[in-house]
Amino acid sequence: MYAFEYAKANSVADAAALLAKTGGKPLAGGQSLVAAMKLRLAQPGTLVDLAGIDELTGMHTEGDALSIGAMTRHADIASSAEVKRLIPALAAVAEGIGDRQVRNRGTLGGSLANNDPAADWPAAVLGLNATVITNKRKIASGEFFKGMYETALAADEIITAVLFPVPKKSAYVKFPNPASRFALVGVFVAQLADDSVRVAVTGAAPAVFRASALEDALAKRFTPDAAKGVRVDASGLNSDLHGSAEYRAHLIPVLAARAVTAAG
Asked: Full-prediction pTM beyond 0.90?
């Protein structure tokens, strides 16, 4: 590890001011950022710790949606009775992240701000058409994810919460890397309140994306067979030592079918 400055913020406004002044990076759970710093993939001169900001944690309903604070930890989402009642797929997403240590330290907002191409939360946010709320504005899910490790966030912009519309049905199924538990391919399927269908895929490409062919098929028949009948183009998908682009293309409809079954 190299030398850096550490600052602990007392409020969202305090954190934003520190980020603007220092040009540093916010520290949430640290499960991605600290590892990247050890490998010199990230070298911020200042870390602004958000852990003491109570307004960034917690869950509550807002009309027909569930609001989850950005600093809410994966483990708290996984064990929440309210999450399990309203959107059980979110509890399943949280429960499948990493190991127990990661789930007890990592946060929803930290994962989204990092936007790892194989992370699970981006699929849930895009699949449910959630809104990312920051200290400056509200960002629609389709506008938030820009590319590999890239989001719409400005340097001094902080995620404060995510607003998830409560769907009729939803589920997330992934084929995990056995070591990291990141998704080789992960598919989030949702039938929203207006009966529209969204299918978000993570792990298969440089960034999370919607599978329009699967959405069209499932909008007509929300059945596992409808998902299995779709063929996904491998162009632009990741190909690495864990799996070829063609293999990932094959997995997407298979996992989508399993997600439809899980959604009920």
From this structure: yes
Half-sphere exposure for 142 (CA within 13 Å, toward CB): 5
**pLDDT at res. 1:** 62
Q: Give the distance from CA 117 to its chain's centroid.
A: 10
What's the CATH superfamily of 169-263?
CO dehydrogenase flavoprotein, C-terminal domain (3.30.390.50)
Q: How many other C-beta atoms are found inside a 10 Å radius of the C-beta of residue 169?
A: 16
d(CA 148, CA 184): 15
Phi first, then psi: give them for residue 12, nearest 5 degrees.
Answer: -65, -40
Q: What span, in angstroms and rounded, lies between the C-alpha atoms of 128 and 152?
A: 18
Query: Is there a contact between 11 and 53 (Cβ–Cβ < 8 Å)?
Result: yes
User: What's the rounded Cα separation, in Å, for the pair 183 and 144?
Assistant: 20
What is the reported pLDDT for 250?
Answer: 98
94, containing H or E segment: helix 88-95
CATH number for the domain whose boundaries are 5-165: 3.30.465.10
The stretches in the chain having pLDDT less than 50 are: none
Residue whose entry in the numeric block shows the structure tokens 């701000």: 113
Task: Put residue 149 in one of left, alpha, beta given phi > 0 → left and psi -120 to 50 → alpha.
Answer: left
Q: Is the dihedral of CA 117, 118, 121, 127 positive or negative?
A: positive
Cα gap 183→88, rounded to integer Å: 19
